[in-house]
């Protein structure tokens, strides 16, 4: 069917529909069909065609999200296939930092969402910005990893220059629209406290997370790390760890 459509002159660069739209190459990437994706690429399909404006995905974003969902099903084999597909996309010129559409996610956030360290490494190796914001309502890469309790991901991002004290205001400054205003956002340390992850709190503090800075932001409240820990009913170990980093205490 695919070859027949091409022989009939099908436009494989046709623009996607506004809602949930995909070009042919984006659909191939999302379904994980490497053969059709490569055939499209060799035939001249636009690998970096913009995503549909509402919940669309570029080909690279689709590949990251699809491949990692396969990881949960067939583990290492799917992980290998996913990385190969993303690597092929990059080789063909895909932009690893392509911004996400409203309701979507960047390739890096998709990798973090599914806790794929090999894919995270591949994307950063090819220039993915570790401090780049996702779409409206999404966290920074470091806050996303911290919110999931993914210690390895947090460690990797910190070692590659992620801002340990990033805030929603930082994201608003990085995003041209300045529209980052969800109901509530936490800093990486705020998420670690919420998740009661002593190991992650310790890691963030080792990288100079600010215990006196604001870690939670919403429309009616803001809290420091210590205030947030008390509000969350954190155990003594968490409180003691935070107090140990308060200067001149």
From TrEMBL:
It comes from Aspergillus minisclerotigenes. The lineage of its organism: Eukaryota, Fungi, Dikarya, Ascomycota, Pezizomycotina. It holds the Pfam family Ank_2. It comes from the Eukaryota. Keywords: ANK repeat, Repeat. SUPFAM superfamilies: Ankyrin repeat. This is Ankyrin repeat-containing domain protein. ANK repeats lie at residues 103-135.
């Amino acid at each position: 069917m695919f070859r027949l459509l091409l022989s009939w002159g099908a436009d494989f660069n046709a623009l996607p529909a506004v809602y949930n739209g995909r070009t042919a190459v984006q659909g191939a990437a999302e379904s994980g069909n490497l053969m059709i994706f490569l055939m499209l690429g060799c035939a001249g399909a636009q690998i970096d065609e913009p995503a549909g404006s509402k919940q669309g995905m570029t080909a690279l974003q689709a590949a990251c999200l699809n491949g990692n969902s396969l990881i949960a099903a067939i583990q290492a084999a799917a992980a290998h296939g996913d990385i190969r597909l993303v690597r092929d996309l990059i080789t063909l010129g895909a932009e690893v930092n392509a911004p996400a559409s409203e309701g979507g996610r960047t390739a890096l956030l998709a990798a973090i969402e599914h806790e794929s360290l090999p894919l995270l490494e591949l994307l950063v190796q090819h220039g993915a910005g570790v401090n780049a914001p996702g779409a409206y309502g999404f966290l920074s890469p470091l806050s996303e990893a911290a919110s999931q309790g993914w210690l390895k991901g947090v460690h990797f991002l910190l070692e590659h220059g992620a801002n340990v004290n990033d805030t929603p205001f930082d994201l608003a400054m990085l995003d041209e629209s300045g529209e980052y205003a969800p109901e509530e956002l936490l800093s990486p340390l705020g998420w670690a406290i919420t998740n009661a992850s002593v190991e992650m709190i310790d890691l963030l503090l080792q990288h100079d997370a600010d215990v006196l800075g604001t870690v939670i932001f919403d429309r009616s409240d803001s809290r420091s790390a210590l205030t947030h820990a008390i509000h969350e009913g954190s155990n003594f170990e968490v409180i003691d760890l935070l107090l140990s980093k308060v200067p001149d205490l």
